[in-house]
Amino acid sequence: MCVSKVGRLVVLVSGSGTNLQALLDASADPSYGARVVAVGADREGIEGLVRASKAGIPTFVEKVGDYATRTEWDVAIAARISAYEPDLVVSAGFMKILGKPTLQAFPLLNTHPALLPSFPGAHGVRDALAHGVKVTGCTVMLADEGVDTGPIVAQEAVPVLPDDDEAVLHERIKTVERRLLVEIVGRMAREGWTVSGRSVRIGNHTGGEST
Ligand code: GRF
Question: Domains of the chain by range and CATH?
Fold first, then answer.
């Protein structure tokens, strides 16, 4: 798979949208190389949508419950995303697995608050704490049809401290996660990237073929 540069970002959110905000802030500088052209969500009434509106970015909401089948939702959200012609879709705290209609049309970047392949799924922070690990972290990866199973783009470690609860640890991780996500999206935008099997390489993009 050979992918060139990113300019247009569609960001998907389900919650507070602090990762979205970090991308919005970074892309205010034209030299960042990418800009958020739309924000999508799977629910209404979330801070992430408010952040988008405040920034003057168009939004859309597609709720799974509004469709008879998950497949219909997959097709509907892919169509909404497609309308904004993104170069990259960023799942930034979006709590749904996207299906083939989106995955086959666009590269999809995801962020997760644990060091994959440890602690995938919706409770990565809670599961790491319950396991008693001393180091956890965050992972930025390309999404596939699995739960946090796609090729890893970047990771960064975060210490677990003795008195951490889930909220405290998650906030420490998110501070790192936001910086890493902004850095990786910006580098992908400016330098291009290639994927070969499970190996993702940013930069040194020759425009040649890869698998
Ligand atoms: C992030 O830690 C993300 O990895 C996880 O949920 C959190 C979303 O935070 N899936 P926010 O909505 O960007 O503030």
Answer: 8-202 (3.40.50.170)
CA of 169 relative to ligand 1 center, distance in Å: 12
Per-residue buried b or exposed e for 62-76, using 16+ beta carbons within 10 Å of the residue's own CB: beeeeeeeeeebbeb
Mean pLDDT of 77-91: 98
List the helix and strand counts (H, then E) for the chain.
Answer: 6, 10
The answer to the question of whether 45 is labelled as a binding residue is no
Q: Picking from 8-17, 155-164, 174-183, 197-206, which range would have the lowest pLDDT averaged per residue?
A: 197-206
pTM of the model: 0.93
Q: For atom 14 of ligand 1, which residue has the closest CA? A: 18
Active site residue 123: no
What's the rounded Cα separation, in Å, for the pair 146 and 162? 32
Q: What is the pLDDT of residue 203?
A: 92
